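Q: Sequence in, structure out?
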Amino acid sequence: MNPETATNIQQAAEAGKITFQQAWAYGGNLMWVLVGFSVVALAVMIYLAIAQKKSSFIPEALRRIQAAKDPSAEGARIADRAYSAVDWLADIAAIAPLVGLLGTVLGIFEAFSMVNSDLNQVTKSEILTHGVSKAVVTTIFGLVVAIPSLVAHAFFRRRAARLVAKLEEKTDALRG
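A: Exactly. Output:
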C-alpha cells in the first residue's frame, strides 16, 4: 500500500466519512469494470427507450410482417429481438454484484494476508482497513450498478411484452 492511500484511509477514518475519490481508490481496478457495466447498461436503457417507442415499433413491425414471405416467422423474429436487448440488462444485473463480490474477496484476502507479516501494528491496521474498505466499496458499487439495471430490465421486459401483444392484436386484425 502506498503512503498516499494510507494517509487517505487515516483521514477518512478520522473524519468518519469517505469521499468518492477515496472510495474509487479503495475499489481499485474493479471499479473500472463496474463503470464499464454501468455505461453498457445506460446505453442499453437509452437504446430500449428509443427502440420500444410504440409510435415507431408497431408500424415498422407491421410493415415488415406484411412484406415478409413468412409473416409468422417474421413476427417471431421481431418478438425475439424485442426481448433479446432487454436480456442485456438482466445479465449486467447478475454480473455486477459478482464483480463486487470479487472485490470483497480480494479486499479481505489483501487485508488478512498481511496480518502475519513483520509490519508494525499501526501499518497492519492501516492495511486491514484498506482491505476491508475495498471489500465494502466494491460490494456497494456492484449493487449500485445491479439494482438500477434490474429495475430497468423489469420495466423494459414488461414494455416489450405489451408491444408484442399489441403487435399480435394488430396483426390478427389485419388478417381479419
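The chain has a mean pLDDT of 85.
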